UniProtKB/TrEMBL annotation:
Residues 4-146 form the N-acetyltransferase domain. InterPro entries: Acyl_CoA_acyltransferase, GNAT_dom. One of its GO terms (molecular function) is acyltransferase activity, transferring groups other than amino-acyl groups. The keyword Transferase applies. Signal peptide: none annotated. Gene3D superfamilies: 3.40.630.30. This is Acetyltransferase (GNAT) family protein. Keywords: Transferase. The keyword Transferase applies. Pfam families: Acetyltransf_1.
Length: 153
């Protein structure tokens, strides 16, 4: 069984992992990431599988009570090992421990595994942004952070 751990990350480290996710087609450069986070409270995490960077989660505060989970992903060779769930739980725990009451996230119909993981973890659909293609519809989900969160690792 693989050993999973977490550590804080820099925008450059996040971008290096992000560039390895084929479904995102490198939509955001490192400067985009830095610009999005500028002046905001943010949280950048990398998951390590046996010491090797395998995935990431990045988010930032929308206000004093709402945290936005912006980007996340797991590199293809490391998928289906629970790493996305590990990152999601760590982000939720951090957000609750920082005093946030709600976490929001957007995904698309074209990412059914992400959508199913979010629903399984208590996120609820709060908005639908229609696109030309149904697969590209953006789904905004939210979860109220009221239950105790145990940070993995």
């Amino acid at each position: 069984m693989s050993s999973l751990s977490l550590r804080a990350a820099t925008p450059a480290e996040i971008h290096a992992l992000y560039a390895g996710l084929p479904e995102f087609a490198a939509l955001h450069g490192e400067r985009d990431i830095q610009a999005r986070l500028a002046g905001r409270v943010s949280h950048l995490l990398i998951a390590l599988c046996d010491g090797v960077p395998a995935g990431f989660k990045i988010g930032y505060a929308l206000d004093d009570t709402v945290f936005y989970s912006w980007l996340g992903g797991v590199l293809p060779p490391f998928r289906r090992q629970g790493i996305a769930q590990f990152l999601l739980q760590a982000q939720q725990a951090w957000a609750l421990n920082q005093g946030y009451h709600r976490i929001e996230v957007k995904t698309r119909n074209s990412f059914p595994a992400m959508l199913m993981m979010l629903i399984k973890n208590g996120y609820q659909l709060i908005e639908l942004e229609k696109a030309e293609s149904v697969a590209d519809n953006r789904l905004r989900l939210a979860k109220v952070l009221t239950e105790p969160q145990v940070c993995p690792g």
